[in-house]
From TrEMBL:
This is Acetyl-CoA synthetase. It comes from the Bacteria. It comes from uncultured Solirubrobacterales bacterium. Keywords: ATP-binding, Ligase, Nucleotide-binding. GO terms for biological process: acyl-CoA metabolic process; fatty acid biosynthetic process. Its EC number is 6.2.1.1. The keyword Repressor does not apply.
């Protein structure tokens, strides 16, 4: 198999593949034929610089065509692509360089200094560079399904980021979620806003849309709530894929309005609270379909297409995937999931480390990480429930819930709250937030401690680092 040959080159050459918007508002479109030709020449340029089958190529590039073309060049010749987010600092990047030992790094000019500061002394290719597309094209080679083509790093929510290897089957295996959750159609425009370098971006920015014959939108700009809606409206986005944090930020910081072209919306990367689903339904006219997966597994669940959305649920196991809840934790059978990582244990079920409950219809409901669950007076409290209740208060921009030691109860819920612009911390507001949570969830879940902060500690992919708040 080879994703470039089987998907990109097999698509109608004239069909639109990429729409790219850069920070200077310049707009570019590339057809599948152009993408195939340019990635072939870029693969040739990498080969001229010593990149061979099985060798590692790291990218530190924004959401640009050059990022996509570099990954395709690697897939074409059997090199192993390691996309890294631009948010990494030199120390973060140094750890990744030491972990994967790349033969070559491809970086945009704005990231060149970070790569050098990280200590990389090998070949450094800067993009954009028109000369890279002057090399003789390299053919797409046959790859074994188990042959490594991609390494993505975990986010480091509970520890140091780890490199996760995926084989060629990982790319083709995205067809399940592409069909049954992302739901793109041929000729449509899909916008997955995940920054380059993360698991969701590697599979949903262009791989999953292209498997369905849809085009992918890239926007190399800082997040702006009003701009996000304006871009979706102006470009006629049909399928929108964002993190729940982005859906919440857009809803709280701008005026939602119907987007005529938008047919479908999905969310993944963190739990999606029911309130934001209702807000987008009333303001935009679409239901957000939640989904769940891990860097190691790819997408495992998704809100099904067709039936009514169940707000707050992460959907059901994708068709053919064996996923179940045992003792409150979500498990999966690696043999049933084509997107499992290469180094997954095959002799036992995969423990996700996520606490999940299932209802009578097989829908799954996220309750928190196994190591994030707060046990107070014998009650097990998922932090997401508390955070969701806090987030529905008009004064709150975002919040995190963690355990705080307590001599009597063992632990109590501590909330760390970031306020919206114009709001000021006070004892009165802390008490109001406690009462707000009491009114929206079981009384034993309310935060007995409320602290205010300017910002929450997060991983580079935007997930809350609760371990840092606990002081682990």
């Amino acid at each position: 198999m080879n994703f470039v040959r089987d998907v990109v080159e097999a698509a109608p050459a004239e069909r639109r593949a990429l729409v790219a918007l850069d920070a200077g508002r310049e707009r570019r479109e590339l057809s599948f034929g152009e993408v195939a030709a340019r990635s072939a020449r870029l693969a040739g340029a990498l080969a001229e610089r010593g990149v061979c089958r099985g060798e590692v190529v790291m990218t530190v590039i924004g959401s640009t065509p050059e990022w996509v073309l570099t990954l395709l060049a690697c897939f074409r010749v059997g090199a192993v692509a390691v996309p890294c987010t631009e948010q990494l600092r030199a120390g973060d990047l140094r750890a990744r360089l030491e972990a994967v030992a790349p033969r070559l790094v491809v970086a945009s000019e704005r990231n060149r200094a970070t790569v050098l500061d990280a200590g990389f002394d090998g070949p450094l290719v800067r993009v954009p560079d028109p000369a890279l597309f002057d090399a003789p094209p390299a053919p797409a080679i046959d790859l074994d399904p188990e042959e490594p083509v991609l390494i993505t790093f975990t986010s480091g929510t509970g520890g140091e980021p780890k490199p996760i290897r995926h084989g060629a089957r990982y790319l083709a295996g995205q067809h399940v979620q592409a069909e049954h959750w992302l739901g793109a159609r041929a000729g449509e425009l899909v916008w997955c806003t995940a920054a380059s370098g993360w698991s969701k971006s590697a599979r949903n920015v262009f791989v999953a849309p292209w498997l369905r014959g849809a085009a992918a939108l890239l926007e190399d700009r800082r997040f702006d709530p009003a701009g996000r809606l304006a871009t979706a409206e102006r470009e006629g986005v049909n399928v929108l894929c964002m993190a729940p944090t982005e859906y919440r930020a857009v809803a709280k910081r701008t005026e939602l309005r119907p987007l005529p072209a938008l047919r479908h919306a999905v969310a993944a990367g963190e739990p999606l609270d029911a309130g934001i689903v209702a807000t987008w339904r009333s303001g935009v006219g679409v239901d957000i379909h939640d989904g769940y997966g891990q860097t190691e597994t790819g997408a495992l669940t998704g809100m099904p297409l067709g039936p009514a959305v169940r707000p707050g649920s992460m959907g059901r196991a994708l068709p053919g995937f064996s996923v179940w809840v045992e003792d409150g934790e979500l498990y999966a059978d690696p043999a049933s999931v084509p997107t499992f990582f290469l180094d997954a244990p095959r002799d036992r079920p995969w423990r996700t480390g996520d606490r999940v409950r299932t209802d009578e219809d097989g829908y799954l409901w996220f309750e928190g990480r196994t190591d994030d669950v707060i046990i107070s007076s014998g009650y097990r409290i998922g932090p997401f429930e508390v955070e969701s209740a806090l987030g529905s208060h008009p004064a709150v921009a975002e919040a995190a819930a963690v355990a705080a030691p307590d001599d009597v109860r063992g632990a109590v819920v501590r909330a760390v709250v970031v306020l919206r612009d114009g709001e000021r911390p006070s004892d009165e507001l802390a008490h109001a937030l406690q009462e707000h949570v009491r009114e929206r969830t079981a009384p034993y879940k309310y935060p007995r401690i409320v602290d205010f902060a300017e910002a929450l500690p997060k991983t580079a992919s935007g997930k809350i680092r609760r371990a840092a708040l606990r002081g682990d």
